[in-house]
From TrEMBL:
It comes from the Bacteria. Pfam families: DUF447_C, DUF447_N. Gene3D superfamilies: Electron Transport, Fmn-binding Protein, Chain A, Hypothetical membrane protein ta0354_69_121. This is DUF447 family protein. SUPFAM superfamilies: FMN-binding split barrel. Residues 24-139, 148-199 form the DUF447 domain.
Amino acid sequence: MVEGLRFESDLASSLKPERPVIVEGICTTRNADGTFNVAPMGPIVDPSLTSFLFRPFQSSTTFANLQATGCGVFHITDDVQLIAQAAVGKVDPRPEMFAAHSIDGAVLADCCRWYEFRVTSVDASASRTEIQTEVVHVGRVRDFFGFNRAKHAVLEAAILATRLHLLTPDDVNAQLERLKVMVEKTAGPKEQAAFEFLQQRIAGVLSQASVSP
């Protein structure tokens, strides 16, 4: 074996994850009326990105659609505005899409990469299901923007917005303040707008919770 290749092989072996790796992105699935649902998802992935384990709740649209159609498209994207809107169920305007290559699905036109997949098994024995899938087609639209702390902060804020029922208001506000520092230091206009959108959304939910009987 060539020395450089041996080094790369040894390095790859040493970097194999001992715990599941989760990749955050956007999943599109076909609704019963023929439109497409756009939802943030963080599947467990294998190192080669050939299979994904999705874990949507039974009450989610993504679960209903995957169970009904048996296929979907997972996207790698750096569009944190889309992630922010999808996390709270308000994607406006609807993103441009085009037809998937190998399944009855839709691809986000401005994603970085996309993975068309088919469902191979469904475990719905708990409220949070486990849906195993296999990738049947991979495509690329453009380069990933690169690592940016503000984009990361918006992603964390989007996840936070889906977990408000699990945290106290003080915990939520403390986390937002920590994330706000990264946004103020490194954000562009899109990241700033996405973070402010989530701040307003979270503040509204917390305000309603405080006046509920």
